[in-house]
Design goal:
Layout: E1 4-8, H1 16-32, E2 35-39, H2 51-68, E3 76-79, H3 85-94, H4 99-103, H5 106-114, H6 121-124, H7 126-135, E4 141-142, H8 149-165, E5 175-176, H9 211-219, H10 236-248, H11 251-263, H12 268-294, H13 297-326
Parallel strand pairs: 1-2, 2-3, 4-5
The protein binds adenosine monophosphate.
């Protein structure tokens, strides 16, 4: 049986890049597989958040994922810290994880370079915790991008090492996959690359973006001085606007502006106004839903407790097997 496991980092608000590039995939997956989606609040401790920030980020992620359609009755949606078994499995894997292999992980090397003042052991053993996250539920499929391939390879290594050491077939080999969703790259508003928080607030359109700032951000999006000559290729900034239009505007509207571009009659102000209007139609229902869920403590509590219960049942079964294999026996 295939089991899907994926972690969600509690890093602020979801933007439409996250939605089209990742979250939509989760929503499809929950229809076809047993899915475990967890909010990676243990992982986030490597950056030392304040208690208030940690709590509000976790709450927001939970609310936003519910709002966009993760269904806690179908998928198991839980907080990592509600399932202490993951910390226990992490401990066991750590006993057979070696300094050399952990130091060679590219995400660790990158972090060690970019934050030399905070190279903590949690960062070093991040792939060990990730292996525990996945193997806790005997996950076989992990919907991640290429950048996570090395971490997944390590999850296979730690699982196989445990299997070999205790001569048992406890853990499967989890594989990356992304077959279910077409891979979309959502461009940002500042003219270069994909939409990303690291490119700044002005680059991102959040699912909970207020109407006025949505309008302002789009109207200020980068363009150029117009088509060089009829039939010329749009600049990256303008192409990005066309790509954003494709996500939320009707085919007729997209065609209208493409033709206007080709004919050299395009007015970027009109195009942005149209994009802003259609984006608002797309965003408004999410925004309302997110704020309603954020105010609904009862729903959040019910979701988290149902998720914790389901995740702990699966985790407890794995840990019982693991503890037995290791040689822990009860004296009472
Ligand atoms: P992040 O929190 O930025 O690591 O993103 C979480 C998920 O959203 C990852 O699976 C990313 O691949 C996906 N994602 C982030 N930004 C974009 C984007 N602009 N276009 C498509 N997918 C994205």
């Amino acid at each position: 049986m295939e089991t899907v496991v994926s972690g969600i980092r509690p890093t602020g608000m979801l933007h439409i890049g996250n939605y089209f590039g990742a979250v939509r995939n989760f929503i499809q997956l929950q229809e076809s597989y047993p899915c475990y989606f967890f909010i990676a609040d243990f992982h986030s401790l490597t950056t030392h958040p304040t208690p208030a920030n940690l709590h509000s980020s976790v709450k927001r992620v939970l609310a936003e994922y519910l709002a966009v359609g993760l269904n806690p009755e179908k998928a198991t949606l839980y907080l990592q810290s509600d399932v202490p078994e993951v910390a226990e499995l992490y401990l066991y894997f750590n006993m057979n994880a070696y300094l050399g292999e952990l130091e060679r992980v590219s995400s660790f090397k990158e972090k060690a370079r970019s934050q030399p003042d905070n190279i903590n052991a949690g960062l070093l053993t991040y792939p060990v915790l990730m292996a525990a996250d996945i193997l806790l539920h005997k996950g076989t499929r992990v919907p991640v991008g290429k950048d996570q391939e090395q971490h997944l390879e390590m999850a296979r290594t730690f699982g196989n090492r445990f299997n070999r050491l205790y001569q048992a077939e406890v853990f499967p080999e989890p594989q990356a996959f992304s077959e279910t969703a077409e891979l979309v790259k959502v461009p940002g508003l500042t003219g270069a690359g994909k939409m990303s928080k690291s490119a700044g607030e002005a680059d991102c359109i959040y699912l909970a973006e207020p109407a006025d700032s949505l309008h302002k951000k789009i109207m200020r999006a980068k363009t150029d001085s117009g088509p060089a000559e009829p039939g010329s290729k749009p600049s990256e900034a303008v192409q990005n606007l066309f790509d954003l239009m494709k996500l939320v505007c009707s085919a007729d509207v997209c065609t209208f502006y493409h033709v206007a571009y080709q004919e050299g009659t395009i007015r970027y102000g009109d195009m942005k106004k149209q994009l802003a209007e259609d984006m608002e139609l797309f965003i408004a229902p999410w925004r309302e839903k997110i704020s309603a869920i954020l105010a609904n403590d009862n729903l959040l509590a019910k979701t988290a407790s149902l998720g914790a219960e389901k995740a702990r049942a699966s985790a407890a079964a794995t840990l019982a097997e693991v503890r037995h294999l290791i040689g822990f026996r009860k004296f009472y």
